[in-house]
Amino acid sequence: MTNQTKTTETRRTSNVKRDRQYDVVIVGAGPAGSVLGWALARRGVNALVLDRAVFPREKVCGDYIEPRGLRLLDEMGCLKPLEADSPLPIAYSATFVNSTCRYRGKIPFYGLRDDLPPHGYIITRERLDHLLLQTAEAAGAVVEQGTAVTGVTTDGKGAVIEARRGKRKIAYKTRVVAGADGVNSVVARSAGLLTWDRRYIALSQRAYAEGIDGNLGEAVFYFDNEFFPGYGWMFPMSGGVVNLGVGVLSETAERLSINIPRLFDRFVEKLKRSHHRCAKLRLIRRPIGGIVKTYGGAGPNFFNRGLLIGDAGSFVDPMTGEGITPAMESALIAADVIHSALLGTSSDGELSAYEKRFRAYFDPSMVFLDLCAATMRNERFSECWLNAMARGCELAQTDSRFGRTTGAYFGGLEINPTGILSQVWISILSDLATLGPRSVGALLNSEPSPLIASAHDIIDWQMSWWKSALGNPIWHASWAMDLEQKWLRFLSMIIDTKDDPRAQGLSKSRQM
Question: What is the mean pLDDT of residues 55-80?
Fold first, then answer.
């Protein structure tokens, strides 16, 4: 145990004060809770961070921190300590569709902005979350670990947090409570805000492995019919270790009786067979499962005397399932709102500003990503989507502009919906314009006609629609109505929105 850890353990024990009045009690010490504790403590707010676990602890996650997240960590002073461990920079990617590699090269939308690192890192949540919690404590937040919150009650004056440490019951009084306690948030449940809509829930299985050939910082994404709508991943780390896993929509898993652990096992075998660098992979830890709730299911996320951040508030990318950066961003937005409320009377009306603030920041990108995810909820279209994805990857391999723009819907740093849709239509029109000459050339060379292939594609889409409508008309109608509502929301939003605020980030001045 290091001297810093010993000091933390000693202070954790000696600072425990029962029934103390806090300005803010934060339930959960993941990235969202720790960043909120850090941001509030720097403003002089008397904040307490509670977590049922004792850190460091393992957490199911892809562990991927993209450039926007690294920028935030740098502003917190956490990036250099993490880089002292020599993490492997991730600047390349490979995309497999039905076991065939369709794209391999530099991540097309990395390295385009001077204010962002040109790479990501894979940092285990054991390491990341522990460092963030230590940073919050160093800034002045009080931290109590091994403390399980069991309930929250609020009134006009504040909130009471009921918790248990071992066999002891503890109560904390606070002016504001922040729920950062994950998908099964006790705070959300106590406030009547806990939802369980399987359209916005992803199930995953993750493990660590070793034996990868080489030390290339290449993130691998794996799409096929078994994972639709979802994907498999393999993220390399330093020392020849990789994080690999699979995630799939909960709604699909339930409707098709998909067993996630078995799906993970099949993915690992497919990865070893199809990726030349993964043939000798072997698991070094047992696979464990996790759950995330994506942004499409996000509600108001505020209530009398409290609000929700991170996974508790569904701040997760609907397409990738990435939640570390959105969690930290939601915490910084919440810090602004809470601090302003504490300067006043901390009423429900003041905390309601949180919804307006996070919607203005996240909606311009997340509403479009939620629309993309919703279109893929229908597994009847899996083959059509995978074929389109394969062609898109192949085009991105030769057309960097197409790759930068359209690839942004899956992990991009700046989402431009009109640009993405424009590029797709330009590609389609260009393809249609050359169908005739290419078909003649194919006939002369005794090759399959692109014109016939395109006709088959159109027929496949139409057949998939009818198979869905006739196979399960009630579910299909519900899906179609949901899709229509999301299109209307997207179109109404895009009229008033030009830029993606997440690309600029939350500046240092707003964190002070």
Answer: 96
